[in-house]
Amino acid sequence: MDRLRQRADFLAVANGARVNSPAFVLQSRRRDDLGPIRIGFTVTKKNGNAPERNRIRRRLRELVKRLDPVSMQPHHDYVLVGRRDALSRDFATMLDDLRIAFTKPARHTARGSDKGPAKGRGEKPGTAPASRKPD
To answer: What is the pLDDT confidence band of residue 132, given thresholds at 50, 70 and 90?
Structure first.
């Protein structure tokens, strides 16, 4: 298992599927090559100062070390985005959350040009746009 280190790889995974948990978000993306599983870790600045973010990152790395690689799908990239709850959440509970996140069917969130046609203001999803009456 390798690590993700380049920003372009993190951005590519961010456009993939995601599974939410109280302590982290697991993002995943299937690759077309036959390379090994790669995983990256990130924590945003809104989650605290540098020592707190580093502690979150260390806890996430330890979770992945204790997880069996069989639960990860081959030829995939994964990113664990740490949340503030990772500081106070029980480690065993977080490990269970991670196991569940890898077994859950990932929910794909479309971004960018994959969103489809834009809806007009005031329209409800699944309804046709209201036609204007002639003046």
So the answer is: low
Neighbours of 70 (CB within 10 A): 8
- Rounded Cα distance between 46 and 56, Å, is 12
Q: How many domains does the chain have?
A: 1
Distance, CA of 22 to CA of 98 (rounded, Å): 11
* Token pair for 73: 């799908």
pTM given for the model: 0.75
Q: What is the pLDDT of residues 14-29, one digit of tens each?
A: 999 999 999 999 999 9
Q: pLDDT of 93-102, one tens digit each?
A: 999 999 999 9
CATH at residue 75: 3.30.230.10
**Considering the domain boundaries, does residue 80 fall inside one?**
yes
CA–CA gap between residue 107 and residue 34 (Å, rounded) = 24
Q: Is residue 128 part of a domain?
A: no
Q: 66: domain range?
A: 2-108
